[in-house]
Give the backbone structure.
Amino acid sequence: MTDVLEVTVTDRAVYARVNRPGVRNAWDREVGAALAGVLDLAADHPVPLVLGSTTPGMFVSGADLAEIAERRLADGLARRNAELFQRLEDHPHPTVAVVDGPALGGGCELALACDLRIGTPRSLWGLPEVTLGLLPAAGGMWRLPRAIGWSRAVELVLTGRRIDGDEAYRIGLVQRLAAVEELDAAVDALLAELALTSVRAVALAKELMRVAGDHRRTGDAIAMGLQYEDADTAARIQAFLDRRRR
């Protein structure tokens, strides 16, 4: 879409790779605008959206502090990144963050807004905003507890402590951990798994997993009823039955 975000569309995935190596892929308004365009593009492609970096050993090191230093109250109230990351979470198809290197501050919040996170042992995770007198206000303060539980999340948010990929995997922040040299293969393996799923069932599952409380029971029932009458579902079940009968 722009020089700061390299976009590739294949039959397996839409890839969006941040390309600002000179500032360790720091997040700024230009990258945010480019991601908004990618979300528009990817909505028309029923394949996973994979976020990563053009540079090995990098993801998104955080917000561009030179830009942050110029912001005022109106910028905070505009909630640009919060709304953008909510759009990412609401994307109908699976989203995957591929993290090899720092995912700090806004970079961590970006990854948290994705459904799935693959990291390497040298990935670095954290929300260090409080050490700068700032807050992880783009969703980090509620997405992190949702991912790893309140007790662990509050310790990371209030101290700004950073953790490596091994610890991130151990506490559930990262769902899959791969050696650096095996990262591409790990992404390909995940995409192969996702390719076997029903596009509509996955979209419904994503929507329903965001619903809390008793509403989920009705939503689940309605969604399952819709899937019972879906032609793709019927074909998948019949193919399974045919294989079992052989």
Q: What stands out?
A: The longest helix spans residues 231-245.
